[in-house]
């Protein structure tokens, strides 16, 4: 039966397809009934089939009947289908959204059905590439496989963060101290999550165990030992004081230092010798290796890497490798005879003890290497600034130094202010492309247009 | 839209177009395979380039080859003793070393080494002369990098039994395991630090004895290696000298052995008469016939005979070394 004109959009107004009519009646019928019959009063095809149980044919012919007749099936299959249950109000809204589920799949199926094989392959490949990029570079999953030894080796590195310095025992730990600790810890946690290292946060509160005459301030040694025991796969341990901030978290330790140790370290302290230690040791009874200024020159024999600041060794940020040499050093680092004689002189405790050991015992020099200070231990302009800004020591934004150690900020400077500023600077320097686009282009345009500074 | 349908195809199919190039072209499916394989290979390369970067070759410290097997070190205090006496002591060492020079199946040079120094050779920065032991042994390790063991013997001591070989009589791992005094206070009588009970013979790098008062540093053996260098340099730290221990390096040794477990872990105590018999009962175990060496305990001190006199009592070493 042909339609002489396109039927008006009246409920039940002539379309043979049931999905096109609205069921606003509250009578709650959930199954299509004869109410959906077309204007001719005949039920739809499948209804008729159900009723008559026999082969039924379409009631209208589709040949040469006009655009809608010929393409009706395709159009009608992609139009929204109506779900035939009775709901009110908010549920209807939800259903309204839900209405699009099935047809979307159908639309996608329709689109892909019309694509050629080649297009499908390209699309699949592109999606796979995007998925790989997301998995390998941006999700939290990067933590797990950057740890494995064949994809980065992150589990070889453990960062020890000395937190809770003092623990509020001798001095009040107020909001600023808590904020500094929070920022420092958060920064290290993010870094570790990004590169697959381990983080060990140790409690440096004032303990009786480390009081006067009982290894006072020698906690570092004990914590390094216990960390090496706790992380059996760790090869390198990185000690960080609390007042440090990793400014460039996009640099991994492997890229920054460990893939090319021999290029970045120097063993001959004469390159930079603030303590004026005479090197190499000149005792006549020493063997060639001990007398050599660079040890054996083999990067694999370096077991301690540290930096020097303007007044000597700085143990705010240093690396130690798991080895017998390290065991020996951690063992002899503290000695009661040494402590008794020197603790009045040794302001920096274990740091000064290490300087004494380095000076007196040649076996220590064999496995110690130094890093340029700005590589792992840049100072802010307040520290070590008797002679003004020293390009060897002080943080330089242009060079994008890796880590800032706000050493000595408790003595006369503002720890929280420095931490906050370096944190904001780090965020600013490491903005993503989108943020850069917003801030450098859009905000700038807006400023030029309206003279007002905004932040998107 | 002038025509409803595209023009009708002709019944004659178009002729086959000739090749544009002489070389065979890679057709669709093969090209795809090649490109995919290439990409997979590059991915694998990228994945594994990280592991290729780590170099894990541990540094090869020079392992002593055992030539000579033992070096005997003695420090001579020329200021205090006569030349004749010191020459006799030197001869004793040399004869002993010679005795082990020509063994049936060893090469001609496989004798023991000897290393003699004067205590004035080293700058002790004002510390007592007995501290010169340490740089002397360290020096011997430099001079004989291939020696297996260094045996330090005090100047006032004589080697009595030429037949005993250090590497078998003392340092052989199985022998050490039977000789080791286990779970014994390192400083008698009542130090709470005791020697290890489960040390393996090959893990021992330092063998010494105790006398009645404490550890005796007049006769000890160290195994040449990195641990020995660490140990000697630690013991020789100027901080121990400035502390002015009552018995100089002996007390310093007792101190470091009790306070530093990495040193205690390589230490073995053996019965005194194995290495270090005393000439008098009152100091420690007394010398008996067949012992390796005797030390003239407290000779030259107030109320005792001089060392020269004391050494006459043990002059039988000359005869012992005379026979084969």
TrEMBL record, chain A:
<feature type="region of interest" description="Disordered">
    <location>
        <begin position="1"/>
        <end position="41"/>
    </location>
</feature>
<keyword id="KW-0812">Transmembrane</keyword>
<keyword id="KW-0472">Membrane</keyword>
<keyword id="KW-0808">Transferase</keyword>
<feature type="transmembrane region" description="Helical">
    <location>
        <begin position="122"/>
        <end position="145"/>
    </location>
</feature>
<dbReference type="InterPro" id="IPR008630">
    <property type="entry name" value="Glyco_trans_34"/>
</dbReference>
<dbReference type="GO" id="GO:0016757">
    <property type="term" value="F:glycosyltransferase activity"/>
</dbReference>
<keyword id="KW-1133">Transmembrane helix</keyword>
<feature type="compositionally biased region" description="Polar residues">
    <location>
        <begin position="19"/>
        <end position="33"/>
    </location>
</feature>
<dbReference type="GO" id="GO:0000139">
    <property type="term" value="C:Golgi membrane"/>
</dbReference>
<dbReference type="InterPro" id="IPR029044">
    <property type="entry name" value="Nucleotide-diphossugar_trans"/>
</dbReference>
<dbReference type="GO" id="GO:0006487">
    <property type="term" value="P:protein N-linked glycosylation"/>
</dbReference>
<keyword id="KW-0328">Glycosyltransferase</keyword>
<dbReference type="Pfam" id="PF05637">
    <property type="entry name" value="Glyco_transf_34"/>
</dbReference>
<comment type="similarity">
    <text>Belongs to the glycosyltransferase 34 family.</text>
</comment>
<protein>
    <recommendedName>
        <fullName>Alpha-1,6-mannosyltransferase MNN10</fullName>
    </recommendedName>
</protein>
UniProtKB/TrEMBL annotation, chain B:
<feature type="region of interest" description="Disordered">
    <location>
        <begin position="1"/>
        <end position="23"/>
    </location>
</feature>
<dbReference type="InterPro" id="IPR029044">
    <property type="entry name" value="Nucleotide-diphossugar_trans"/>
</dbReference>
<dbReference type="GO" id="GO:0006487">
    <property type="term" value="P:protein N-linked glycosylation"/>
</dbReference>
<dbReference type="Pfam" id="PF05637">
    <property type="entry name" value="Glyco_transf_34"/>
</dbReference>
<dbReference type="InterPro" id="IPR008630">
    <property type="entry name" value="Glyco_trans_34"/>
</dbReference>
<dbReference type="GO" id="GO:0000009">
    <property type="term" value="F:alpha-1,6-mannosyltransferase activity"/>
</dbReference>
<keyword id="KW-0328">Glycosyltransferase</keyword>
<keyword id="KW-0808">Transferase</keyword>
<dbReference type="GO" id="GO:0000136">
    <property type="term" value="C:mannan polymerase complex"/>
</dbReference>
<protein>
    <recommendedName>
        <fullName>Alpha-1,6-mannosyltransferase subunit</fullName>
    </recommendedName>
</protein>
<comment type="similarity">
    <text>Belongs to the glycosyltransferase 34 family.</text>
</comment>
């Amino acid at each position: 039966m042909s339609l002489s004109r396109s039927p008006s959009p009246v409920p039940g107004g002539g379309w043979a397809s049931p999905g096109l009519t609205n069921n606003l009646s509250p009578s709650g019928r959930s199954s299509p009934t004869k109410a959906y019959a077309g204007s001719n009063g005949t039920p739809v095809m499948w209804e008729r089939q159900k009723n008559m149980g026999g082969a039924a044919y379409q009631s209208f012919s589709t040949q040469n009947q006009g655009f809608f007749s010929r393409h009706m099936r395709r159009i009608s299959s992609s139009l929204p289908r109506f779900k035939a249950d009775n709901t009110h109000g908010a549920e209807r809204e939800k259903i309204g959204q839900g209405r699009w589920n099935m047809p979307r799949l159908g639309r996608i199926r329709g689109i892909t059905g019309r694509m050629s094989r080649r297009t499908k392959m390209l699309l699949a490949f592109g999606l796979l590439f995007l998925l790989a990029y997301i998995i390998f570079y941006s999700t939290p999953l990067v933590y797990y496989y950057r740890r494995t030894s064949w994809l980065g080796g992150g589990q070889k590195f453990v960062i020890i963060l000395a937190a809770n310095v003092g623990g509020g025992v001798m001095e009040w730990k107020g909001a600023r101290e808590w904020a500094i600790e929070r920022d420092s810890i958060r920064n290290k946690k993010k870094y570790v999550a990004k590169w697959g290292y381990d983080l060990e946060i140790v409690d440096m509160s004032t303990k009786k165990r480390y009081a006067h005459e009982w290894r006072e301030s020698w906690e570092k040694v004990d914590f390094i030992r216990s960390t090496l025991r706790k992380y059996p796969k760790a090869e390198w341990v990185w000690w960080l004081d609390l007042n440090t901030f990793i400014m460039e978290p996009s640099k991994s330790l492997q890229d920054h230092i460990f893939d090319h140790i021999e290029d970045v370290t120097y063993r001959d302290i004469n390159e930079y010798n603030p303590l004026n230690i005479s090197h190499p040791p000149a005792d006549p009874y020493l063997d060639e290796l001990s007398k050599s200024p660079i040890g054996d020159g083999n990067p694999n024999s370096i077991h301690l890497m540290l930096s020097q600041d303007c007044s000597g060794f700085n143990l705010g940020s240093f690396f130690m490798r798991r080895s017998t040499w390290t065991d020996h050093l951690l063992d002899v680092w503290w000695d009661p005879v040494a402590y008794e004689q020197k603790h009045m002189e040794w302001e920096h405790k274990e740091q000064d003890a290490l300087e004494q050991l380095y000076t007196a015992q040649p076996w220590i020099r064999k496995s110690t290497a130094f890093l340029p200070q700005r590589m792992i231990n840049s100072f802010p302009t307040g520290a070590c600034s008797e002679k003004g800004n020293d390009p060897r020591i002080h943080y330089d934004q242009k060079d994008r130094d890796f880590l800032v150690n706000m050493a000595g900020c408790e003595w006369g400077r503002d720890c929280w202010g420095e931490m906050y500023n370096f944190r904001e600077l780090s965020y600013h320097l490491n903005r993503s492309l989108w943020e850069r686009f917003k801030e450098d282009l859009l905000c700038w345009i807006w400023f030029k247009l309206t003279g007002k500074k905004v932040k998107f | 839209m002038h025509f409803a349908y595209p023009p009708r195809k002709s019944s004659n199919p178009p002729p086959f177009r000739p090749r544009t190039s002489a070389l065979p072209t890679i057709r669709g499916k093969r090209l795809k395979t090649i490109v995919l394989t290439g990409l997979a290979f590059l991915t694998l390369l990228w994945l594994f380039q990280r592991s290729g970067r780590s170099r894990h070759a541990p540094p090869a410290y020079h392992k002593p080859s055992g030539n000579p097997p033992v070096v005997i070190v003695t420090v001579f205090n020329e200021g205090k003793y006569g030349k004749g006496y010191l020459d006799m002591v030197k001869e004793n060492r040399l004869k002993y070393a010679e005795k082990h020079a020509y063994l049936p199946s060893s090469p001609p040079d496989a004798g023991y080494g000897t290393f003699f120094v004067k205590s004035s050779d080293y700058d002790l920065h004002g510390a007592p002369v007995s501290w010169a032991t340490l740089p002397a042994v360290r020096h011997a390790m430099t001079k004989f990098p291939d020696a297996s063991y260094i045996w330090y013997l005090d100047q006032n001591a004589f080697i009595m039994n030429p037949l005993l070989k250090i590497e078998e009589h003392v340092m052989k791992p199985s022998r050490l395991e039977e000789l080791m005094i286990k779970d014994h206070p390192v400083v008698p009588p009542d130090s709470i630090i005791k020697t290890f009970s489960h040390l393996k013979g090959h893990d021992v790098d330092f063998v010494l004895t105790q006398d009645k008062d404490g550890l005796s540093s007049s006769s000890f053996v160290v195994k040449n290696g990195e641990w020995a260098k660490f140990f000697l340099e630690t013991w020789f730290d100027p901080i121990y000298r400035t502390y002015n221990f009552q018995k100089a390096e002996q007390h310093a040794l007792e101190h470091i052995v009790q306070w530093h477990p990495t040193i205690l872990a390589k230490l073995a105590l053996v019965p005194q008469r194995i290495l270090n018999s005393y000439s008098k009962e009152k100091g420690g175990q007394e010398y008996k016939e067949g012992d390796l060496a005797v030390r003239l305990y407290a000779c030259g001190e107030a109320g005792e005979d001089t060392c020269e006199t004391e050494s006459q009592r043990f002059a039988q070493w000359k005869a012992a070394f005379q026979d084969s």
